Each structure stands twice: as C-alpha cells, then as structure tokens.
Amino acid sequence: MRWFLLFLTILAVILFLGCTAEEKKEVKIGVLIPKTGEFSSAGVVMENAAKLAEKHAKEIFGINVKIIIADCGDKPETTKAAFMSLSQQGVVAVVGAYSSPQSLIAADTAKELKLVYIASVASADLEGKVKEGNRYVFRNAYNTTYWGVLATEFLEISNASSYYLIGFDPLRTFNAALFNYVKNNTKAEFKGEAWYKSPSIAPEDYKKAVASAIASGAEVVILGDPGPTSVSVVREFAMRSGKATIYSVGGTLALPYVLKNLSVNNVAFQAAAMEGQEKTNLTKRYFEDYRSIFKEDANNYAGILTYDAIMIVAQAASKGDPVEQLEKGSFIGAAGIYSFDENHQAKWGSEKLKGSLGIFRDGKIEILR
User: Fold this and answer.
1) Could you report the per-residue pLDDT of 65-107, keeping only the tens digit for each?
2) Which of 214, 242, 271 is the endpoint of a domain?
3) Fewer CB within 10 Å, N side or C side of the chain?
4) pTM for the whole structure
C-alpha cells in the first residue's frame, strides 16, 4: 500500500510539473507599430493596446504571452525590415502595421518566411494574396467592403438625401475603395469629392476641401482621415458654420475626450466596439483597463483591433499550429467573436462580429448600433 501511495504521489508531482511547464510556455508575438512617420499618432494607441493584450492574455486566458514590438514606420521597406527582425526573435506570428502598402509587403514577407501575419488595421486586398496561395496572411480588421457597408448604413440610418466625400491623400488606396463602394450602394445624391494632403506637405489643403464640402450643400460629409488632422477639419467646419453631419472613419474622431473638447454637434463615426457595449466578456475589461492604465479613453479602431489580433494569435497558438487553428477556429476578442472565411478575412457583418456606429450630439455619445 505504501509503495502504491508513493507511486501516486510521484505521478501527481510529475503531472503537476508537466502542467506547470505547459502553463509557463511563452508565446512570443511580434507587433508592427508605426512609432515614427506619418501614422505615429495611431502607433501610440496601438502600442498601448498591445501591452494591454499581453496583460489580459495571461490574466484571462492563462496564456503566457510576450509581445515584441518593432517600429514599422510608414513605408513598405521599413515594414519589411521590421518584419524580418521580428522573425529572427522566435515569434509565432506577427500582427499590426497601418497602411495598405505596409500590409501588402508584410503579407508577402509572411509567405516568404512561412510565418503568420494578421493585419489589424489596413483594408488592402489581402484576400487576393490568399487566393494566390498565401496561407500565412489573415486580417481581423475590416476589408474595404465593410468600411463601405458601415458608411452606407449610416447614410440610411440618418435618412440623408445627399453626401460629399473628403479623402486623405496618404490613405488614398483605402479612401478611394471606400468611396467607390458608397457611390455604388447608396440612394443618396453624390454632391462631390475633395482630397487633402498631409498638413506637413500642404498646410491649407484641408481648408479648401472643407469650403468645397460646405458649398455643395450636402447633408452628410464622409471624412476618410482617421488621424489628428480630422480634428482640424471639424473645427474648420464649425468656424465656417457648416451644417452637414460629419461621418468619420473613426480613429481620432471616435475618442470621447476629443469630441467633448470640440464645440461642435453631429459628428458621427464608426468603431469596432464602443464603451457601453457588451460584445464579449472582454469588451468592458478592455475599455476600463485601458483608461485605468493609460489615463485616457481607449482608441476605437487601430487600438482595439491590434489588441484583438494579439488575443486571437494567443488563443490559436495555445491550441496548436497557428495557421490550422486560425482557419478552422473561433476566437474571443473585445469587438466580438472572430472566425475567418476561406480568404482569411474576419467575418465582419456576421451575427457575432459587427461594427458599431455612434454620433456625438448634445454633449454626449449616442450609440446608433
């Protein structure tokens, strides 16, 4: 009997040590963040969200995640160099980057290195890469079609009879595809289109775009700039007594503190998720902890979807081969329950994963959907 009890004790110790070793197994995830260059303002919230994902993966899922951040700048060549650097540090996957050209080069590099890449922001034609045989690229962000779906839905919700488009030239590929979708799928009258370059290149450009939009008499102005210049656009509208509702693609104009500091009304925006919604058990935790740790409101797109990309990889890698798991599984994020279609695009618009629409008026944010 004593030998039998000793055997059981030894077996229990072995099992315990085995489980402990398994629990402590580190999952390294590379994160491409634009810490420098044109998109560095988005890089700040992406980095914050990545750090929060590392913390939550351990606390909520018991997965020992270690994020490794690389500055991808704002160009394809800096993105590829950053991706190559991450691949040499034992990461199981790479997430992030910002613009469409960056995500496209990251996708090609992922195939070259046979390393999973999840695009968490850009809407470039990554599905085409998959169709050509690249199994290593996925996207948890919207594709361009879904950006257009949300903008078109807002036009319907607001009963707008007309709209005007203002595009941001550094994101021309994304803006043009979004705008074309809206033009082809709404009954509202198209009143015109204007573009502005980065203020560092053409400081007065956005003012001309605003003047054209107001002169058109459109009821809604769709603004394709998620960055800080969008705030200047809204201020210019107010200064010129513009009456149109501005619909933003999000980013800076989805932040509550930014909206509250603007003396304007009727600024609408899209978001992957909004504070006050309970899409999953991570939603409330994400917004509350982001504010608690970083002392500001959570970013509603580039940040939350970078967070979700890391959480998705953590769940997939903890179960087995990341590619196989991503292709067949479902994963919990702050914005919803993710699964990927045959082209490795997250199924936005499905029952468990839908974008949100909000509007700021009378001093507060109202969730439209």
Assistant:
1) 999 999 999 999 999 999 999 999 999 999 999 999 999 999 9
2) 271
3) N
4) 0.86
- Taking the C-alpha atoms of residue 41 and residue 43, their distance in angstroms, rounded to an integer, is 5
* Rounded CA separation 220/223 (Å): 10
**Domain with 299 in it:** 21-142+278-338
Helical pair 100-113 and 76-87, crossing angle rounded to 10 deg = 30
Residues 265 and 304 in one domain: no
d(CA 201, CA 190): 28
Is residue 197 domain-shared with residue 262, that is, in the same domain?
Answer: yes
* Structural domains in the chain (count): 2
Position 131 in a domain: yes
**Residue 222, in any domain of the structure:** yes
Length of the chain: 369
**Nearest to 315, CA basis, from 29, 107, 20, 15:** 29
Helices 144-157 and 172-185, axial angle in degrees (round to 10): 50
Distance, in Å, from the CA atom of 262 to the CA atom of 49, rounded to the nearest integer, reads: 25
